Amino acid sequence: MSPIARFASLLLLLVGAASLSGCMNYLAPFETEPAKVGAETQVHDRFAELPAPRDQVVAAVYRFRDQTGQYKPSQNIASWSTAVTQGSTSILMRALERSGWFDTIEREGLSNLMNERQIISSMRQMHEGDRGTGPLPPLRFAGILLEGGIIGYDSNIITGGAGARYFGAGGSGEFRQDQVTIYLRAVSTQSGRVLKTVHTTKTILSQKVDVGLFRFIEPERILEVEAGYTFNEPPVQAVTEAIEEAVFNLIIEGARDGLWSTEDEAALESAIFQQQEREVARAQSLNAFRMLRASDNRRGLGIGTSASAMRYQGDFQDPLVRGGGDVHLRGNVAPRWGLGLTVGTGELAADRAFSRRHVSTEAHTLYYLLPHSRLTPYATVGGGMLMQTGHGSFEIGRNAFPYAMAGAGLEWMATSSLGLSVGMHGNLALVDGIDGRDMGSFNDGFWNVRAGITYYTRLF
Hints:
Layout: H1 3-27, H2 42-46, E1 57-61, E2 65-66, H3 88-99, E3 102-106, H4 110-128, E4 144-166, E5 169-188, E6 194-218, E7 221-232, H5 235-256, H6 271-283, E8 301-313, E9 319-332, E10 337-350, E11 354-368, E12 375-388, E13 400-413, E14 418-429, E15 445-456
Helix pairs in contact: 3-5
Protein backbone atom coordinates (compact mmCIF):
# COMPACT_ATOMS: atom_id res chain seq x y z
CA MET A 1 0.00 0.00 0.00
CA SER A 2 1.35 3.42 -0.94
CA PRO A 3 2.10 6.04 1.76
CA ILE A 4 -0.77 8.20 0.53
CA ALA A 5 -3.19 5.30 0.79
CA ARG A 6 -1.91 4.48 4.28
CA PHE A 7 -2.36 8.08 5.37
CA ALA A 8 -5.89 8.20 3.92
CA SER A 9 -6.82 4.95 5.71
CA LEU A 10 -5.45 6.26 9.03
CA LEU A 11 -7.29 9.55 8.61
CA LEU A 12 -10.55 7.72 7.84
CA LEU A 13 -10.07 5.53 10.91
CA LEU A 14 -9.49 8.56 13.15
CA VAL A 15 -12.58 10.33 11.78
CA GLY A 16 -14.66 7.20 12.32
CA ALA A 17 -13.39 6.81 15.89
CA ALA A 18 -14.13 10.47 16.66
CA SER A 19 -17.64 10.14 15.21
CA LEU A 20 -18.23 6.97 17.20
CA SER A 21 -16.99 8.68 20.36
CA GLY A 22 -19.40 11.54 19.78
CA CYS A 23 -22.30 9.15 19.19
CA MET A 24 -21.50 7.17 22.31
CA ASN A 25 -21.31 10.39 24.33
CA TYR A 26 -24.81 11.20 23.07
CA LEU A 27 -26.21 7.73 23.70
CA ALA A 28 -24.47 7.25 27.06
CA PRO A 29 -23.50 10.65 28.55
CA PHE A 30 -20.60 10.58 30.99
CA GLU A 31 -21.78 13.61 32.97
CA THR A 32 -24.15 13.31 35.90
CA GLU A 33 -27.41 15.25 35.95
CA PRO A 34 -29.06 17.10 38.83
CA ALA A 35 -32.26 15.85 40.42
CA LYS A 36 -35.40 16.80 38.52
CA VAL A 37 -39.14 16.66 39.00
CA GLY A 38 -40.38 13.21 38.09
CA ALA A 39 -41.79 12.64 34.61
CA GLU A 40 -45.56 12.40 34.28
CA THR A 41 -47.44 9.70 32.41
CA GLN A 42 -49.89 10.11 29.54
CA VAL A 43 -52.79 9.25 31.86
CA HIS A 44 -51.84 12.08 34.19
CA ASP A 45 -52.68 14.61 31.47
CA ARG A 46 -56.13 13.05 31.03
CA PHE A 47 -57.07 13.86 34.64
CA ALA A 48 -57.36 17.50 33.58
CA GLU A 49 -60.08 16.50 31.08
CA LEU A 50 -62.33 15.02 33.77
CA PRO A 51 -65.39 17.05 34.74
CA ALA A 52 -65.50 18.46 38.26
CA PRO A 53 -67.20 16.29 40.93
CA ARG A 54 -70.26 17.49 42.79
CA ASP A 55 -68.61 16.47 46.08
CA GLN A 56 -65.22 14.88 46.61
CA VAL A 57 -65.32 11.27 47.79
CA VAL A 58 -63.56 10.73 51.12
CA ALA A 59 -61.38 7.67 50.53
CA ALA A 60 -58.91 5.73 52.66
CA VAL A 61 -56.09 3.46 51.47
CA TYR A 62 -54.58 1.20 54.11
CA ARG A 63 -52.17 -0.62 51.83
CA PHE A 64 -52.00 -1.06 48.11
CA ARG A 65 -49.30 -3.67 47.96
CA ASP A 66 -47.31 -5.86 45.63
CA GLN A 67 -49.04 -9.24 45.57
CA THR A 68 -46.97 -10.81 42.80
CA GLY A 69 -44.13 -12.26 44.86
CA GLN A 70 -42.11 -11.77 41.69
CA TYR A 71 -38.36 -11.29 41.72
CA LYS A 72 -36.37 -9.72 38.92
CA PRO A 73 -35.69 -12.27 36.17
CA SER A 74 -32.07 -13.32 35.92
CA GLN A 75 -30.48 -15.95 33.70
CA ASN A 76 -27.16 -16.34 35.49
CA ILE A 77 -27.59 -15.63 39.22
CA ALA A 78 -30.30 -15.80 41.86
CA SER A 79 -31.78 -12.34 42.40
CA TRP A 80 -33.77 -11.38 45.48
CA SER A 81 -34.67 -7.93 44.17
CA THR A 82 -38.36 -7.52 43.52
CA ALA A 83 -39.58 -6.94 39.98
CA VAL A 84 -41.97 -4.13 40.91
CA THR A 85 -41.92 -1.25 43.35
CA GLN A 86 -42.96 -1.80 46.97
CA GLY A 87 -44.19 1.80 47.26
CA SER A 88 -47.33 1.48 45.18
CA THR A 89 -49.47 2.90 48.01
CA SER A 90 -47.72 6.24 47.63
CA ILE A 91 -48.28 6.13 43.87
CA LEU A 92 -52.00 5.47 44.35
CA MET A 93 -52.35 8.27 46.92
CA ARG A 94 -50.80 10.76 44.50
CA ALA A 95 -53.03 9.58 41.65
CA LEU A 96 -56.13 10.06 43.84
CA GLU A 97 -54.97 13.55 44.78
CA ARG A 98 -54.19 14.55 41.19
CA SER A 99 -57.54 13.34 39.89
CA GLY A 100 -59.39 15.96 41.96
CA TRP A 101 -62.23 13.52 42.71
CA PHE A 102 -61.05 12.11 46.05
CA ASP A 103 -60.38 13.57 49.48
CA THR A 104 -57.81 11.05 50.71
CA ILE A 105 -57.04 10.42 54.35
CA GLU A 106 -53.97 8.77 55.83
CA ARG A 107 -54.31 5.13 56.89
CA GLU A 108 -51.09 3.37 55.86
CA GLY A 109 -49.16 5.16 58.63
CA LEU A 110 -52.12 5.23 61.04
CA SER A 111 -50.09 3.92 63.98
CA ASN A 112 -47.53 6.70 63.48
CA LEU A 113 -50.33 9.26 63.27
CA MET A 114 -51.96 7.99 66.48
CA ASN A 115 -48.64 7.99 68.30
CA GLU A 116 -47.99 11.57 67.27
CA ARG A 117 -51.45 12.67 68.41
CA GLN A 118 -50.83 10.96 71.73
CA ILE A 119 -47.55 12.82 72.11
CA ILE A 120 -49.27 16.14 71.38
CA SER A 121 -51.97 15.45 73.99
CA SER A 122 -49.38 14.38 76.57
CA MET A 123 -47.22 17.45 76.01
CA ARG A 124 -50.20 19.77 76.28
CA GLN A 125 -51.28 18.12 79.52
CA MET A 126 -47.77 18.25 80.90
CA HIS A 127 -47.01 21.89 80.15
CA GLU A 128 -50.41 23.54 80.10
CA GLY A 129 -52.46 21.39 82.47
CA ASP A 130 -56.13 22.25 82.56
CA ARG A 131 -55.40 25.53 80.78
CA GLY A 132 -54.69 23.68 77.51
CA THR A 133 -56.54 24.35 74.32
CA GLY A 134 -58.64 21.19 74.70
CA PRO A 135 -58.56 17.84 72.93
CA LEU A 136 -57.43 17.45 69.37
CA PRO A 137 -60.11 17.47 66.67
CA PRO A 138 -61.38 13.99 65.76
CA LEU A 139 -59.92 12.11 62.83
CA ARG A 140 -61.98 12.02 59.67
CA PHE A 141 -63.60 8.76 58.62
CA ALA A 142 -63.78 7.47 55.06
CA GLY A 143 -66.82 6.79 52.93
CA ILE A 144 -65.01 4.17 50.85
CA LEU A 145 -61.93 2.02 51.15
CA LEU A 146 -59.71 1.50 48.12
CA GLU A 147 -58.25 -1.98 48.08
CA GLY A 148 -56.34 -4.14 45.61
CA GLY A 149 -52.76 -4.17 44.48
CA ILE A 150 -50.26 -5.21 41.86
CA ILE A 151 -51.45 -8.73 41.22
CA GLY A 152 -49.27 -9.79 38.29
CA TYR A 153 -45.87 -9.26 36.71
CA ASP A 154 -45.27 -11.48 33.68
CA SER A 155 -41.79 -11.58 32.14
CA ASN A 156 -40.95 -12.21 28.49
CA ILE A 157 -44.52 -12.42 27.26
CA ILE A 158 -43.22 -11.45 23.80
CA THR A 159 -39.59 -11.58 22.67
CA GLY A 160 -38.02 -11.23 19.26
CA GLY A 161 -35.29 -9.79 17.15
CA ALA A 162 -33.70 -9.55 13.73
CA GLY A 163 -30.25 -9.04 12.27
CA ALA A 164 -28.19 -9.15 9.11
CA ARG A 165 -24.49 -9.27 8.32
CA TYR A 166 -22.72 -9.03 4.98
CA PHE A 167 -18.96 -9.22 4.48
CA GLY A 168 -18.29 -8.42 8.11
CA ALA A 169 -20.68 -5.44 8.35
CA GLY A 170 -24.13 -5.65 9.89
CA GLY A 171 -26.39 -5.04 12.82
CA SER A 172 -29.07 -6.64 14.94
CA GLY A 173 -31.92 -5.72 17.22
CA GLU A 174 -33.75 -7.50 20.02
CA PHE A 175 -36.79 -6.66 22.10
CA ARG A 176 -38.64 -8.03 25.10
CA GLN A 177 -42.00 -7.20 26.62
CA ASP A 178 -43.02 -7.69 30.24
CA GLN A 179 -46.46 -6.89 31.60
CA VAL A 180 -47.76 -5.58 34.93
CA THR A 181 -51.40 -5.98 36.01
CA ILE A 182 -53.27 -3.78 38.50
CA TYR A 183 -56.60 -4.45 40.26
CA LEU A 184 -58.38 -1.67 42.16
CA ARG A 185 -61.72 -1.90 44.00
CA ALA A 186 -63.89 0.54 45.94
CA VAL A 187 -65.54 -0.83 49.10
CA SER A 188 -68.32 0.86 51.07
CA THR A 189 -67.30 1.40 54.70
CA GLN A 190 -70.94 1.30 55.86
CA SER A 191 -72.02 -1.98 54.28
CA GLY A 192 -68.77 -3.61 53.21
CA ARG A 193 -70.18 -4.05 49.71
CA VAL A 194 -67.74 -3.95 46.82
CA LEU A 195 -69.02 -1.03 44.76
CA LYS A 196 -66.76 -1.27 41.72
CA THR A 197 -63.71 -3.24 40.54
CA VAL A 198 -61.44 -2.24 37.67
CA HIS A 199 -58.24 -3.69 36.32
CA THR A 200 -55.57 -2.39 33.97
CA THR A 201 -52.42 -3.73 32.34
CA LYS A 202 -49.27 -2.02 31.09
CA THR A 203 -46.48 -3.50 28.99
CA ILE A 204 -42.84 -2.81 29.85
CA LEU A 205 -40.59 -2.66 26.79
CA SER A 206 -36.88 -3.42 26.59
CA GLN A 207 -34.91 -2.98 23.36
CA LYS A 208 -31.34 -3.57 22.28
CA VAL A 209 -29.79 -2.39 19.00
CA ASP A 210 -26.17 -2.86 17.94
CA VAL A 211 -24.14 -2.45 14.74
CA GLY A 212 -20.64 -3.61 13.95
CA LEU A 213 -17.94 -3.78 11.31
CA PHE A 214 -15.20 -6.42 11.11
CA ARG A 215 -12.92 -6.23 8.10
CA PHE A 216 -9.36 -6.99 7.07
CA ILE A 217 -7.77 -3.75 5.83
CA GLU A 218 -4.51 -5.57 5.11
CA PRO A 219 -3.48 -9.20 5.61
CA GLU A 220 -2.25 -8.34 9.10
CA ARG A 221 -4.49 -5.36 9.91
CA ILE A 222 -8.09 -5.69 11.11
CA LEU A 223 -10.66 -2.93 11.50
CA GLU A 224 -13.33 -3.68 14.10
CA VAL A 225 -16.01 -1.15 15.10
CA GLU A 226 -19.00 -1.73 17.38
CA ALA A 227 -21.77 0.53 18.66
CA GLY A 228 -25.17 0.05 20.20
CA TYR A 229 -27.63 1.04 22.87
CA THR A 230 -30.19 -0.54 25.17
CA PHE A 231 -33.53 0.98 26.13
CA ASN A 232 -35.38 -0.31 29.21
CA GLU A 233 -38.70 1.25 30.14
CA PRO A 234 -38.63 1.97 33.90
CA PRO A 235 -40.92 -0.51 35.70
CA VAL A 236 -41.92 2.11 38.29
CA GLN A 237 -43.12 4.39 35.50
CA ALA A 238 -45.16 1.54 34.02
CA VAL A 239 -46.70 0.77 37.43
CA THR A 240 -47.52 4.46 37.91
CA GLU A 241 -49.28 4.64 34.54
CA ALA A 242 -51.25 1.45 35.22
CA ILE A 243 -52.39 2.73 38.65
CA GLU A 244 -53.39 6.11 37.23
CA GLU A 245 -55.34 4.39 34.45
CA ALA A 246 -57.13 2.30 37.11
CA VAL A 247 -58.08 5.46 39.05
CA PHE A 248 -59.25 7.10 35.81
CA ASN A 249 -61.43 4.10 34.92
CA LEU A 250 -62.81 3.93 38.47
CA ILE A 251 -63.94 7.57 38.27
CA ILE A 252 -65.56 7.13 34.85
CA GLU A 253 -67.35 3.86 35.63
CA GLY A 254 -68.39 5.01 39.10
CA ALA A 255 -69.91 8.21 37.72
CA ARG A 256 -71.68 6.23 34.98
CA ASP A 257 -73.15 3.82 37.57
CA GLY A 258 -74.24 6.63 39.93
CA LEU A 259 -71.78 5.86 42.75
CA TRP A 260 -70.66 9.51 42.67
CA SER A 261 -71.87 12.52 40.73
CA THR A 262 -70.40 15.14 38.44
CA GLU A 263 -71.05 18.82 39.02
CA ASP A 264 -72.84 18.92 35.66
CA GLU A 265 -74.92 15.84 34.83
CA ALA A 266 -74.59 16.59 31.12
CA ALA A 267 -70.89 15.71 31.44
CA LEU A 268 -71.85 12.02 31.42
CA GLU A 269 -72.42 12.39 27.66
CA SER A 270 -69.17 14.26 27.06
CA ALA A 271 -66.45 13.05 24.71
CA ILE A 272 -64.22 11.70 27.46
CA PHE A 273 -66.95 9.37 28.77
CA GLN A 274 -67.80 8.15 25.26
CA GLN A 275 -64.14 7.58 24.43
CA GLN A 276 -63.69 5.52 27.58
CA GLU A 277 -66.72 3.38 26.71
CA ARG A 278 -65.24 2.66 23.30
CA GLU A 279 -61.91 1.68 24.84
CA VAL A 280 -63.62 -0.69 27.29
CA ALA A 281 -65.66 -2.24 24.47
CA ARG A 282 -62.54 -2.72 22.38
CA ALA A 283 -60.63 -4.24 25.31
CA GLN A 284 -63.31 -6.92 25.58
CA SER A 285 -62.48 -8.10 22.03
CA LEU A 286 -58.73 -8.42 22.71
CA ASN A 287 -56.76 -11.24 24.29
CA ALA A 288 -53.83 -11.06 26.72
CA PHE A 289 -51.46 -10.02 23.91
CA ARG A 290 -53.70 -7.06 22.91
CA MET A 291 -54.66 -8.98 19.77
CA LEU A 292 -58.14 -9.71 18.47
CA ARG A 293 -59.62 -12.88 19.90
CA ALA A 294 -59.90 -15.79 17.51
CA SER A 295 -63.71 -15.70 17.74
CA ASP A 296 -63.73 -12.04 16.65
CA ASN A 297 -60.99 -12.26 14.02
CA ARG A 298 -61.90 -13.01 10.37
CA ARG A 299 -65.23 -14.45 11.45
CA GLY A 300 -68.06 -15.17 9.03
CA LEU A 301 -68.28 -14.92 5.27
CA GLY A 302 -65.68 -12.66 3.68
CA ILE A 303 -66.53 -10.71 0.53
CA GLY A 304 -63.82 -8.69 -1.19
CA THR A 305 -61.96 -7.55 -4.26
CA SER A 306 -58.31 -7.40 -5.30
CA ALA A 307 -56.13 -5.67 -7.86
CA SER A 308 -53.25 -7.65 -9.30
CA ALA A 309 -50.12 -7.37 -11.43
CA MET A 310 -49.57 -10.44 -13.64
CA ARG A 311 -46.39 -11.65 -15.35
CA TYR A 312 -46.26 -14.45 -17.88
CA GLN A 313 -43.58 -17.18 -17.70
CA GLY A 314 -43.20 -19.53 -20.63
CA ASP A 315 -41.60 -20.13 -24.00
CA PHE A 316 -41.22 -16.47 -25.06
CA GLN A 317 -38.65 -14.05 -23.77
CA ASP A 318 -39.32 -10.50 -22.57
CA PRO A 319 -42.54 -11.14 -20.60
CA LEU A 320 -44.61 -8.07 -19.79
CA VAL A 321 -46.39 -7.10 -16.56
CA ARG A 322 -50.11 -6.55 -17.04
CA GLY A 323 -52.88 -5.61 -14.65
CA GLY A 324 -55.91 -7.57 -13.53
CA GLY A 325 -58.56 -7.79 -10.86
CA ASP A 326 -60.87 -10.21 -9.11
CA VAL A 327 -63.69 -10.61 -6.62
CA HIS A 328 -63.52 -13.29 -3.97
CA LEU A 329 -65.40 -15.07 -1.21
CA ARG A 330 -63.77 -16.47 1.92
CA GLY A 331 -65.08 -18.58 4.75
CA ASN A 332 -62.97 -19.65 7.73
CA VAL A 333 -63.71 -23.19 8.85
CA ALA A 334 -61.30 -22.97 11.83
CA PRO A 335 -59.16 -20.22 13.41
CA ARG A 336 -56.18 -21.18 11.22
CA TRP A 337 -57.94 -22.55 8.14
CA GLY A 338 -60.08 -20.93 5.48
CA LEU A 339 -61.56 -21.69 2.09
CA GLY A 340 -61.78 -19.24 -0.80
CA LEU A 341 -63.33 -18.85 -4.24
CA THR A 342 -62.03 -16.24 -6.72
CA VAL A 343 -63.32 -15.03 -10.08
CA GLY A 344 -60.97 -12.71 -11.94
CA THR A 345 -59.82 -11.26 -15.21
CA GLY A 346 -56.48 -10.11 -16.59
CA GLU A 347 -53.98 -10.25 -19.43
CA LEU A 348 -50.80 -12.23 -20.12
CA ALA A 349 -48.31 -10.95 -22.69
CA ALA A 350 -44.75 -11.09 -23.99
CA ASP A 351 -43.11 -8.30 -25.94
CA ARG A 352 -43.74 -8.64 -29.72
CA ALA A 353 -44.90 -12.24 -29.22
CA PHE A 354 -48.45 -12.51 -27.90
CA SER A 355 -51.07 -10.78 -25.73
CA ARG A 356 -54.23 -12.54 -24.58
CA ARG A 357 -56.94 -11.56 -22.16
CA HIS A 358 -58.58 -14.15 -19.97
CA VAL A 359 -61.05 -14.83 -17.19
CA SER A 360 -60.32 -17.29 -14.43
CA THR A 361 -62.03 -19.13 -11.60
CA GLU A 362 -60.05 -20.44 -8.66
CA ALA A 363 -60.67 -22.38 -5.44
CA HIS A 364 -58.05 -22.39 -2.71
CA THR A 365 -57.28 -23.17 0.90
CA LEU A 366 -55.70 -20.62 3.26
CA TYR A 367 -53.60 -21.26 6.36
CA TYR A 368 -53.13 -18.35 8.82
CA LEU A 369 -49.88 -18.58 10.76
CA LEU A 370 -51.00 -16.16 13.55
CA PRO A 371 -54.80 -16.28 13.59
CA HIS A 372 -55.06 -14.33 16.88
CA SER A 373 -53.00 -11.44 15.55
CA ARG A 374 -54.25 -8.47 13.58
CA LEU A 375 -51.28 -8.96 11.23
CA THR A 376 -50.64 -12.52 10.14
CA PRO A 377 -48.70 -14.24 7.38
CA TYR A 378 -50.71 -16.75 5.40
CA ALA A 379 -50.04 -19.55 2.91
CA THR A 380 -52.44 -20.67 0.23
CA VAL A 381 -52.69 -23.55 -2.23
CA GLY A 382 -55.38 -24.35 -4.77
CA GLY A 383 -56.25 -24.61 -8.40
CA GLY A 384 -58.40 -23.10 -11.06
CA MET A 385 -59.24 -22.69 -14.71
CA LEU A 386 -57.85 -19.94 -16.95
CA MET A 387 -60.06 -19.27 -20.00
CA GLN A 388 -58.82 -17.01 -22.81
CA THR A 389 -61.48 -14.83 -24.36
CA GLY A 390 -62.18 -14.15 -28.04
CA HIS A 391 -61.58 -17.70 -29.29
CA GLY A 392 -65.08 -19.18 -29.48
CA SER A 393 -66.10 -22.11 -27.32
CA PHE A 394 -63.68 -23.17 -24.61
CA GLU A 395 -61.53 -26.25 -25.20
CA ILE A 396 -58.92 -27.70 -22.83
CA GLY A 397 -55.45 -27.14 -24.23
CA ARG A 398 -56.57 -24.58 -26.82
CA ASN A 399 -58.06 -21.69 -24.87
CA ALA A 400 -58.88 -23.25 -21.49
CA PHE A 401 -56.06 -24.24 -19.16
CA PRO A 402 -56.38 -25.80 -15.71
CA TYR A 403 -53.64 -24.68 -13.35
CA ALA A 404 -52.29 -25.26 -9.84
CA MET A 405 -51.55 -22.35 -7.53
CA ALA A 406 -49.43 -21.76 -4.43
CA GLY A 407 -48.61 -18.52 -2.68
CA ALA A 408 -48.05 -16.56 0.50
CA GLY A 409 -48.83 -13.12 1.83
CA LEU A 410 -49.89 -10.94 4.73
CA GLU A 411 -53.33 -9.93 5.99
CA TRP A 412 -53.90 -7.05 8.39
CA MET A 413 -57.23 -6.58 10.17
CA ALA A 414 -57.91 -2.84 10.19
CA THR A 415 -61.01 -3.66 12.28
CA SER A 416 -62.53 -6.94 13.45
CA SER A 417 -64.49 -7.06 10.15
CA LEU A 418 -62.23 -5.38 7.58
CA GLY A 419 -59.04 -7.03 6.32
CA LEU A 420 -56.33 -5.69 4.01
CA SER A 421 -54.10 -8.23 2.28
CA VAL A 422 -51.15 -8.43 -0.08
CA GLY A 423 -49.70 -11.63 -1.48
CA MET A 424 -47.64 -13.22 -4.24
CA HIS A 425 -48.89 -16.33 -6.04
CA GLY A 426 -47.24 -18.68 -8.50
CA ASN A 427 -49.43 -20.51 -11.04
CA LEU A 428 -48.44 -23.48 -13.19
CA ALA A 429 -50.64 -24.68 -16.06
CA LEU A 430 -51.40 -28.39 -16.05
CA VAL A 431 -51.64 -28.28 -19.87
CA ASP A 432 -49.07 -26.35 -21.94
CA GLY A 433 -50.07 -23.72 -24.48
CA ILE A 434 -51.12 -20.53 -22.68
CA ASP A 435 -48.89 -18.62 -25.09
CA GLY A 436 -50.20 -20.56 -28.11
CA ARG A 437 -47.19 -22.87 -28.32
CA ASP A 438 -46.65 -26.35 -26.93
CA MET A 439 -42.88 -26.28 -26.54
CA GLY A 440 -40.17 -26.91 -23.98
CA SER A 441 -39.83 -29.26 -21.03
CA PHE A 442 -42.09 -27.27 -18.70
CA ASN A 443 -45.66 -26.02 -18.97
CA ASP A 444 -46.42 -22.32 -19.15
CA GLY A 445 -47.28 -20.42 -16.01
CA PHE A 446 -47.62 -16.97 -14.58
CA TRP A 447 -47.00 -14.96 -11.42
CA ASN A 448 -49.35 -12.46 -9.88
CA VAL A 449 -49.12 -10.04 -6.97
CA ARG A 450 -52.47 -9.23 -5.38
CA ALA A 451 -53.48 -6.41 -3.06
CA GLY A 452 -57.04 -6.58 -1.80
CA ILE A 453 -59.66 -5.78 0.77
CA THR A 454 -62.06 -8.22 2.44
CA TYR A 455 -65.14 -7.49 4.52
CA TYR A 456 -66.26 -10.26 6.88
CA THR A 457 -70.06 -10.13 7.11
CA ARG A 458 -70.36 -12.41 10.19
CA LEU A 459 -73.36 -14.23 8.75
CA PHE A 460 -72.25 -17.37 10.61
